[in-house]
Amino acid sequence: MVHQTMKTSRTPAARASSKTSHMSANDARMARTVLRRGYTGWCDWRLSSAGVAAATAVLVALMSGGCGTVPEPGPVLDRGATTPTPPQGDATRPATTPALARPRARWLPAAWHELPGWTTDRTAALWPALRASCARPAPQWAAVCARALQFNPPDDAYAREFLERELQPYRVESPEGNASGLATGYFEPWVAARRQPQPGYTVPLYRLPPEVAARRPGWTRQQFDTLPAARRALAGHEIAYVSSALDALLLQIQGSGRLLLRDSDGATRTARLAWAGHNDQPYRSVGRWLIDQGELDADEASWPAIRAWADRARPERVQQMLWHNPRMVFFREEPMPVEDTGPRGAQGVALTAGRSVAVDPAAVPYGTVLWLDTTEPLSNTPLQRAVMAQDTGSAITGAVRVDYYWGGGPQAEQQAGRMKQPLRVWALWPRETAAAQQAGGAPRAQ
Fold it and tell me: Residue 68 and residue 38: Cα distance in Å, rounded?
C-alpha cells in the first residue's frame, strides 16, 4: 500500500510568517506545516503565543483567499501538557542526550539526518506493526503508544513527523563499539499436510508431550527416532503429517507455519501452528554441517540449496544431516484469525510482513521501533526502513543482529532463504523516557 505525500504551494504562508517578527524558527516551521497541509488542529502543536497568532493569520488568509471552507482536520495528535517538543530536522547529534546501556549493546544518541534513507521510507506503512506492539506496550512506551493508537497518519511525512516528535534515535553498537552486523530473513512456511498418515504424508508434527516437557535436557532428535521410550512419549501427540522430513524441519526452524489441510471432500483448510516448546537441546545449523562436510559452498548455503541437496542425496545421508541438529521443536495449533495476519512473535503480537523483525532482547527490548540500513537479498539494493522489534530466535544473538520477517508463502520463503546481508541499526526510543533516565542518572534502556 503506497502512501503519497500531497504537495501544494500557497503564497500566503510567506506573508503570514513575515508579519510576525517575534515568531521562533520552530513556530515558523509549524505555521508553514499548518498552511501546507490544511492542518486545523494546530493548537495541539505547542506553538508560542506568537506562533498561534501566525497560524491564525494563515488560516484567515486561506479562508479569505477564495479557498471556500477550511479543510476538515485530520486525526489530531494529543500532545499533552508535559510532552517536550524536540527540534525538528536536528543537524547535529544532541549534546545533552546520554547513551543508553543494554546487557548486550550500547546505544549512542544520533541525529535524524544520520539515518540512511530516513526521508524515503513509506513510514505510514509502519503503523499496523506499531499498533500491534502498542496493544502490549512496555511501561516506557505507554505514553507514546497511547498517542500512536489515536493517530492515523494520512501520509508518510505525517508519520515521520510523529516519530521525530516522540522518539530519539540511537545508533546500536556492541559493547565493544562495533556498529556493523548481520541481517537474515525468516518467513511463515505454508506446508501441505494431512490429519492422518497416508501415502505421501508420513512425517508427523507433534504437540509438546508432558513427559518431554519435564525432561531437562530432553531426548535428542536422533533418540526420538531410535529409542523406544522416546517414541512412546510422542505417541498420541501427533497434530498432522507432512510429506517430508525437510518440511518438518523447516517448520521447526521457523517456529511456526500454516498447514494446508485437505479434507475428505477435497476442500483445503488452513490451520496455523505456533511454537510450543523444544527438548532443551542446542540448535545446530544443518547449513553449517553441509558446508563443513563439503556438500555446499559457504556462499550457497541457503534453504533452497539445502532442499535441492536433500532431493538428490542418499536417504541415509539426509538422516545424518537431520540428526546433526539435536533440537526438536513442538507446536500448538491456533485458530486462524478472520484477518490475514501473521503469526504471533515473542512479544505476543501478530507479525507484519516487511515491518517486523526478530532481535536479541538483551540488546533491543520488544516493542522498540528500529531503523534498518541493509540491502535486499543477494544484491546491493538498499533496504532502509522503520520496523518493530517483535520476535526473537535461537540464532538471533548480539547487538546488531536482526531476522527480517518477509511474510508467508513461497515468495517469502525464497527471499528469506537468500538473505544474509550487512546491517546497521538505530533504535528509536521515547524521548520522555530518555529525559527521565537522564534526570535519574545511570540510564538504561529497559
Answer: 12
Pairing outcome for strands 203-206 and 401-408:
unpaired
In 3D space, the residue among 345, 189, 336 whose CA is nearest the CA of residue 254 turns out to be: 189
Alpha-carbon span 330 to 59, nearest angstrom: 61
Integer Cα distance of 75 and 33 in angstroms? 15
Q: Which residue has the higher pLDDT, 11 or 112?
A: 112
**Average pLDDT of the chain?**
81
What gap in Å lies between CA 8 and CA 127, rounded to an integer? 25
Strands (E), 216-338: 238-242, 257-262, 268-278, 329-334
Contact call for residues 124 and 417 (beta carbons, < 8 A): no
> Which spans in 7-48 are helix H?
12-18, 25-37
Q: Which domains does the chain have, with CATH numbers?
A: 12-64 (no CATH), 188-334 (2.40.240.50)
Q: Are 159 and 153 in contact (CB under 8 A)?
A: yes
Residue 30 clears pLDDT 80, i.e. is over it = no
Q: Are 387 and 357 in contact (CB under 8 A)?
A: yes
pLDDT value for 339: 67
**What's the pLDDT tens digit per position in 276-291?**
999 999 999 999 999 9
